[in-house]
Each structure stands twice: as C-alpha cells, then as structure tokens.
Amino acid sequence: MAEYLENRVFDEIRVGQTAELQRTLTRDDVALFSKVSGDLNPTHIDEEYAKARGAKGIVGHSLWATSLISSLFANVLPGPGTVYRTQDAVFHRTVDLGDTLTGRVKVVEKGPETLVTFACEVLNQRHEPVMTGLASVNAPTEKLRIEIPDLAEISVRHHDSFGVLLEQATRLEPVPTAIVHPVDQVSLQGAMEAAESGFILPILIGPESRIRAIADQHGIGLGGARIIDVEHSHAAAARAVGLVREGAAEILMKGSLHTDEVLAAVVDRAAGIRTERRISHIFLMDVPTYPKLLLISDAAVNIAPDLEAKADICRNAIDLAHTVGVDRPKVAILSAVETIRPKIQSTLDAAALCKMADRGQITGGILDGPLAMDNAINLEAARIKKIDSEVAGVADVLIAPDLEAGNILAKQLIFLANAEASGIVLGARVPIVLTSRADSVRTRHASAATAVLHAHAVRRGLHKAEH
C-alpha cells in the first residue's frame, strides 16, 4: 500500500505546534554522509585515529544531526513545499555509532508573509542535548499530498578484502604461469598486467604469430615473456599441462579457448595433472554487505555432484580458505531448508557431509548443514529459526547443492549486490585460473593473486599434494 506525505500550509500552523523523529546512526550513515558531503575528516573514517583523540570510535558528522531537523521540515512540519531559509545551531556533544537521536521542532513565531520560526533540538538516547538552535522556513500555501517515492538502495563497502589479497601477493616472488592460448586482447592483457604487477612469470602458449599480432594491435607489451609456439588451442592446453608435469609452471591460466578444452587436458588419465581429488571451482567474493570474504563452491565445474564429489568440493574450499588466512573456516552446506527432508537430496547430502567431518573424513573446517541461505549468512535469521551453530549466520564458505544454484548465487551477488568476484579451480596439481571476457581488470588481478598465494602455500607444504 502506498504511503503519503501531507503538508501543513501556513494558515494551519499554530504557535506551539511540534513534530519529532528518531534515527539511529549507523556506519553506513557516516560513510554515505562523508561521500556526499566530501567531509573526509579522519574522525569520521578512521576508528583508531578517533580513539586516539578520546572518542569511543568513529564519530558522526555534526551536520548529520542537523539533517534530522531538515527532514522534519521537508516531510512533517510544515512538510512538502517548505523552503528552508535560516538555521542557527549550537553543537553540544559528539554523536557515536549506535546513538539514537531524537530531532524536535516547535513553532515559536509566525512572521510576515509565510515565514515561520522554529526552536530546534536534537537529543541522544540519554536525553542529552546534541544540537540546539533556531530555524526559519517559508511554509507552503498550497495543500499537497504526495506519494513517498521508492529511492534506490545504496550499498556501502566498508572493507576491501581484494586489496588485502593483492597486497599479500605483491610481497611474494612471482610464480611461473602457463597462459593457455592467449590470442585475444582480454586474456593476453590480463596475463601481462598480472606479470607487470609482479604476480606471475608468464609463459605464453599458442600460435606465436597471433599472439604477437594481438599485442601489436592493442599496444600490449610482452616484456620479454617466453612464448611457446603451438598451432591450436588443444595443443596449447596439452603443452601447458606438460609444463606443469615437468615442474616448469606452478599455475595454469585459461586464455581464449573453452574451459572444457583446458580441463580435458588437466584430467587426461595418461598425460594430465589430476590428483586423487575431484577438481572444483571456488569463487572468492567481496560482498559490500558481508563483513568478510565469502567463498562459494561449486559454480563452474561440477554440474550435479554426488556425495563423494561434494566432499572434495568441501576439502578444496577449506584449503583455499586456509590460503587466504581463515584458519578454521565455517562451512555452510546449503539447501532450500535447514532441516533434513528425505525428499530433498541436498539435505541428506548435507547431513552426511557433516557426519563425515565429525569422523575426520573432512578436516580443517567446521561444517554445518543443511542451512538455508538466510540462516547461513544472517545471525538474526539463524536466531529466529533457533539454530544453535558455530556456522549459522557467520559462514566463511557456502557449498551449493549443484552448479546451477552456485552459479546463480554468485551472479546475483555480482550483479545485484555489487560484489567483486575472483576464483580458481583446485583439485589438480596446481591452481587453475579460469578467466572470463566479462571480468574486470581488478577481478583478473585478484584471481591471479589468489592463485599465487595458493601456489606459495603448496610450496610451504600448507596443503597436502594428492597425486
């Protein structure tokens, strides 16, 4: 049902009339006010800076309190059609995150024509004055009743998880990387940008004449990169896998060819680089509205994994979580519901996976499931459903029931929640980067950085090689 704002015209306003509203200051409020106003005072942005100067933490903008008065004039009294004229304000104390402020206005005088003067005050939840003053407005003379518009939702990113990954990767020595058939601008440029950032030592495998032609056409510097000349994409995939077997490459990166061509060479029983594990893809997602990196698997390789495949999908995701610094990842096994239903196979698989973890068949993380999406990532949803779990509401890893569900979930977060996504394939002897034409430069960098971090983790013996 539509909601409306209705004003009070000048003739309806009486001395002594009042109006008030309440708002609680959130971190999003502070971030958005900083962005819109351009006020980048570190007390509003840097918690440690603010604490060093005696504050409890990040401090709200003083004019945010004043904006409550502006909202009252625009929406309540007088309401739509009001013109703000003057505002005298005295600020008495700071506003901290979580403070609930009450803004109040009271008519003290009706002047000539349509001028109305108001006494204004803003109090915190302890009834202490935050701001007091006088304001004058021109009240409307035309009666208005307008429908409240639906404003666009705005997401605020308070963290940069990818920035952390990129910084970590730049501190490591570059890793020899086989780039498979980089014969278009996106794949060649992505590889060379990763090289320029110091992440990888690129080995370009494909038709040398085409690679050089693309580089010349788009102004891509090859920087002395090694080029292995092969005729077509199948041969490039096979040669890249051969380099891994020889120990000359520690990462595979897909170029301009179909993913199936790369993976077919990887899993070839005679000449491939498969291990005892099933290979699987893991998305790393930096979601603005989630406080930490979120891993999602599998959304790109295993179409309808059985229980054995799902166990390996969990193991691979746990390994990658360890690589990016999560010592004991919380793994949510997703389904449509959070109870075991014999007619819903994914709930049975979830229960079995959790029991496998209890028996030491899946190690390194905490598993729980089945969990629905809401109670996997939202503590309040888990509380309402009375789910007592170390994982519910705070998951680090989401294991999808099948590829379709995982792919849809990842794409929703990217295109509806402004999430940044990178990802790699694990389960082979080396990490595999599957690039996409739709990937941004930053996404390609993050995927390469993730692969580099994992390759170094394997070097250090953090992950067991399963040949």
Outline the structure in words:
By secondary structure, the chain is α/β, with parallel strands linked by helices. Helices cover 35% and strands 23% of the residues. The chain has 14 helices and 18 strands. The strands form four sheets. Strands 15-14-16-13-12-17 form a six-stranded mixed beta sheet, sandwiched between helices. A hairpin with a 4-residue loop joins strand 4 (100-110) and strand 5 (115-123). Helix 4 (161-170) packs across helix 14 (441-459). The longest helix has 19 residues, at 441-459. It starts with a strand and ends in an 8-residue tail after the last helix.
Topology:
Blueprint: E1 4-6, E2 18-24, H1 27-37, H2 47-52, H3 62-75, E3 83-91, E4 100-110, E5 115-123, E6 129-138, E7 145-147, H4 161-170, E8 175-180, H5 185-196, E9 200-206, H6 208-218, E10 226-229, H7 233-246, E11 251-254, H8 259-267, E12 280-286, E13 294-297, H9 307-323, E14 330-334, H10 345-358, E15 366-371, H11 373-377, H12 379-384, E16 397-399, H13 403-416, E17 420-426, E18 432-433, H14 441-459
Parallel strand pairs: 8-9, 8-11, 9-10, 11-18, 13-16, 14-15, 14-16
Antiparallel strand pairs: 1-7, 2-4, 3-6, 4-5, 5-6, 12-13, 12-17
Helix pairs in contact: 4-14, 5-14, 7-8
Query: pLDDT under 50 segments (min length 5)?
Result: none
Give the overall silhouette: elongated
Largest sheet: 6 strands, mixed
Radius of gyration: 29 Å
Number of strands: 18
Helix content: 25-40%
Proportion of residues in β-strands: 15-25%
**Overall pLDDT confidence:** 91
| Secondary-structure-derived class | alpha/beta
What's the total helix number? 14
